Amino acid sequence: MKNTLTFLRSIRFRLPMLFMMVSAIPAVVAIVWISSLLNERMEVLLQQRVRDSALTAHNIFEEYAQDILLKARLVTQTQQVQSTLRQQDKIALINQLSALRQDLNLGVYNATVEIFDASGKLFVAEPKRSLQQVSDTLVYTAMHRGQYRVSRFFEDDQLRLATALPIFHPEEARPIGAVALSFNVSHKLADEIHKLSAAEVLIFVAPLGEPARLLATTLDEQSSENLIARYLAEDLRLNQHPEYLLAAVRGDARNGQYYVAAALQTRDMLGLIASLKQILLFVAGAAALLALIFALGLSRNLINRIVYLVQAARKVEHGELDIRIQLDSDDEFGILARNLDSMRQEIQQTLQQKESMITNLTIRDQLNQAIITQAGADLLKEVLMIIIRAINAQKGSIMMVDEDSGKLMLKVVYDPDQGEEPINILEHISFAIGEGIAGQVAATGEALICNEPQHDKRFKTYRFQEMDRRIWNIICIPLKVQDQVLGVISLDNKVGGFEDEDLTLLNHLAHQIAIAIQNAELYERSIIDGLTGLFIRRYFEDLLDQELKRSQRFELETSLLMFDIDHFKRFNDTYGHQVGDWVIQKVAQVTRESLRDGVDMAARYGGEEFAVIMPDTSLEEAWLVGERLRKAIEESFIFHDGHKLKITISLGCASFPAQAQSKEQLILFADTALYASKHKGRNCTTRYHSDLSLYERGVFTDR
């Protein structure tokens, strides 16, 4: 018994220590392990976040770089600039450039706009510079080769972005000059990228074997240089307690490379980790003091909470950001859970903003590509499909304001029930301004959302389509340039209905689309004959020059087909000039339908005379095309006063370089063959050969 009492007395104080050791040691080990794991995982998350920020900053930099190409195009297509340059009025041109520089917000870049005359010499610049900012090669390439892009190069320890585009005038066949737009990468540009990316921005150069050189930053220069040096030395880790973490994306210039980097402060993260360690130390002390009484329950509860936090941190690391992190307690673990949940929400919001920004940049890039590569109806179709995909609508249409009637004319419709591609509407289907939802949008210039159109009195169906009866919801956006409404985009049937964020996105894009459509229409009017819809003679001759150069370069054959309408004077004299115009329009329509779309190029060469350029086509193949066209027109007719009026044409063709050695000679030979067809009795196609020289223009004059 005495021995038993002695044993009990001896373990009375040892047993609590044993319980304390058994409970506390695993808890302390777990806390140390969890602390290290959370520290590592949080560093991975922050590193990933700074890399994402760097990629976002680089994408925004690229958007600004591509933006100068679009703004340079807007300058080239400004009629006042074209006219003033043609008149060689320096003072007026400088004033216009100053206004355009403000309208296009070029002050963001501190950009320089330079105008070059037709000889490639600098004419004016705004703001005025003592030296030319872009190379003669860039200007020459744009004016004489029609090639233009954003050029990046280093000059005087500065990274410069520049582009040059040719300036055309409607009354001139060749470029009358060029516009160049350029700017240096500066702190101001870094500030603009910072506003959009929500990160500190650094742009620098790191030549191999040389010290890094800072180009632009939103931090102070000393801190930026130290941060870049540590980044290049791979000396930025959370356990070294740096003030910032840095990540960079490399870009290529013509004569070197540069880096666009993003920097994020680590103060909050390091504070959170320090707070976490304090909490864990507190938990370890509490576990040791209370181990005797609460060892099993407390350790179990502690481990469960720690495991929950670790699992939550791992989910955040793997991108599972939709699950809320929550502990129903007001203790340190609850505070830590709320801090982790706040970090989860911040990361989720940042990722959503980044995805939204990338989506917007992608849509703008698609629109820019469409603007550069498409024109006319093709541009409208491409724009409609881009916008429909952008907000997940099912179908839609574009209506443009007709200058003659002042009404909204339906131009393009996309309905998946009718086909996989949008279609051009050739019928005259119109809305009066103020009529229907689209008409009200055109009248007010304000966008509208209607998620129950069938119960809205403003909604009006197209009288020719069943598609409107299947419209569940609709959003209409005006296409405006300044205060002028050019048209309306209508999008239909989004699952769940249209929301304000759809309206915000479309309003941001609508102005860019409206300017592109207006510029495309102005350009098309300058090269298209108003009566026939074919190319005008001046533009046709430019196309022929280009095609013959391509033929020489690739050793290909190009043929020219020329034809005119037989006895056209009789149509005018007998039935009047309006009937004569109908005849010309009918011939132009059949010609377009008979040629290879996107390959052959047809033009109205003179009053009733037409010409067709046929690339990669031999003389024999051109003759077959001419015969097919001749028969198609012979089978066509127009009605006048109940009479069916037949039309025939006479054609001649020649080939380059098999026959002609120059553009002038090719036109002469094709025209000579045409006259031979007239002499043979009309309504036939003649291939040129040397024996036809007596039929040159002037010998046979009865057209």
Report what the structure shows.
It is a single chain. The N and C termini lie far apart (142 Å). Residues 1-13, 463-467 and 698-703 have low confidence and may be disordered. 36% of the residues are buried. The protein is an alpha+beta fold. It is built from 18 helices and 23 strands. Helix 2 packs across helix 6 and helix 10 packs antiparallel against helix 11 (376-391). The strands form 5 sheets. Strands 10, 11, 12, 13, 14, 15 and 16 form a 7-stranded antiparallel β-sheet that branches. The radius of gyration is 37 Å and the shape is elongated.
Per DSSP E runs of 2 or more residues, the count of β-strands stands at: 23
Poorly predicted runs of 5 or more residues: 1-13, 463-467, 698-703
Strand content: 15-25%
- Structural category is alpha+beta
Overall mean pLDDT stands at: 78
- Spatial separation of the terminal alpha carbons: 142 Å
Backbone CA Rg: 37 Å
Query: Which of globular, elongated, flat, extended, rod-shaped describes the shape?
Result: elongated
Could you describe the largest sheet, including whether it forms a barrel?
A: 7 strands, antiparallel
Q: Estimate percent helicity.
A: 40-55%
Q: How large is the count of helical segments?
A: 18
